[in-house]
Known about the structure:
Layout (H helix, E strand, L loop, with lengths): L12 H8 L2 H22 L2 E2 L6 E5 L3 H17 L8 E4 L2 H11 L4 H12 L6 H12 L6 H14 L11 H5 L5 E8 L3 H7 L5 E4 L3 E4 L4 E4 L6 E3 L2 E4 L6 H8 L2 H4 L12 H20 L13 H12 L2 H4 L13 H16 L4 E3 L11 H4 L3 E6 L20 E6 L7 H13 L8 H9 L5 E3 L6 E6 L3 H4 L3 H7 L11 H16 L2 H15 L6 E2 L4
Parallel strand pairs: 2-3, 2-12, 3-4, 12-14
Antiparallel strand pairs: 1-15, 4-5, 4-11, 5-6, 6-7, 8-9, 10-11, 13-14
Helix pairs in contact: 3-4, 3-5, 3-21, 6-7, 6-15, 7-10, 12-13, 12-15
Amino acid sequence: RRTRPSHLFGRRTENFLTAVHHGKKEEKVAVERRRLRVLKALKKLHIEADEAPVVAVLGSGGGLRAHIACLGVLSEMKEQGLLDAVTYLAGVSGSTWAISSLYTNDGDTEALEADLRHRFSRQEWDLAKSLQKTIQAARSENYSLTDFWAYMVISKQTRELPESHLSNMKKPVEEGTLPYPIFAAIDNDLQPSWQEAKAQETWFKFTPHHAGFPALGAYVSITHFGSKFKKGRLVRTHPERDLSFLRGQCWGQRGLNGGGKWRRVKHSPCLCSFAAPLLRLQQSLQRERPVLEDEGSEPNYNWLTEMLENWTRTSLEKQEQPDEDPESKGSVSDFLDFVRKTGICASKWEWGTTHNFLYKHGGIRDKTMSSRRHLHLVDAGLAINTPFPLVLPPTREVHLILSFDFSAGDPFETIRATTDYCRRHKIPFPHVEEAKLDLWSKAPASCYILKGETGPVVMHFPLFNTDACGDDIEAWSDTYDTFKLADTYTLDVVMPLLALAKMNVRENKKKILREMRNAAMLYYPKHYAQSCSLV
């Protein structure tokens, strides 16, 4: 049984965790029920086993490209009967968008694909709704660029604004009908620890039951994540944040920081792209805002939407013209507060601000964890662009990992980074010589099977590979560049990417089945697992 690091927690920690959170027990029960479903799925795949091997599917980051490709992977795994044999489903960045969509559609992948086609068959974005959600978020004391990014950027990228919550996923998960989902983030305040020692406590996870630091064994109920705690006691309850915000929490700073180099950016072109339009918008607002007839009524933002649409179509030169009418026609304090707060957050480059549920907790000796009033959670891709640390020991014992890499660059960057992480912490992970990784990256195949003396078997699937793309890997990568504008993702661009991701699963089904069978035989030798028929 794993114990929590003694240098971080004192004797009071267990009482605190018991009082605040029961999600670990709930997860264990859910996973046990899932194993029954996995056993039935294995039998349908002609694999007989008395105990189900633990299989995890991981999706990497990659923005909208990862979102679409991960949807393809999930859809084809469902079609091939493979998804029902999976215990855990974990994602980073863009893959979290796809994974969350699977649950909001109750695991119906046909509906998932239909929704995808519907969203990208039309060039529409509900700007009014996105703007209203952002303004509402700006009323919070913990407003940050994550809110702006979630409601104004990612909603435009994906053409959707989900309002459900992680806790809404409990029913299918507890019934075992879908894999247990894990969404990854990292603690931005711990970046020195990660850069120096690849500290395990840097990683943060969200599940339908809890949120917290796996390496520390410190969690809070997902319904209380974001609420205010002090000395282990709930001080003030805040509503659970929606999935739109979670998507912003799990993907944001990586793309703006230049594709994964973890650094604080205070004066950059990206910062200017936030600050300058906000300043111009505020000037335009001072000229055009009307007087509200009833200051006490719920504000109507239709005029703001129209103004913003007109403003974004205006030439840059005209937008930068000085304000000729400095006199105000009225007051819309909440909108101005949104503009002001976003500008401040941009100047500080502040992301992922939330109350620290470990604040002033006396059982924690590491003051870095207990002295902060707030956490700042950002895209886990800034550390490793696939959530390997959340399914490896000591967090979890997984027998087979299916790693789907949706990178546009080196598809083995995540393997290199995870190898280094595991070496530092003495975690079993397949070792591959650097020279071999370099050779593979020049002309990647569709599937690699990595095995070590101990630990899980890792099947690694590069999205763009010679088996599917031939000699056109570079052209595919350019077409689906991470920074490609959302408006260029028309249906005729989306569907080939979806088909490519599905083909990568379909063409490697036999290999996946073979490794599932091997895992059942290796980890449960007393209960002999064998194939009922050749596949």
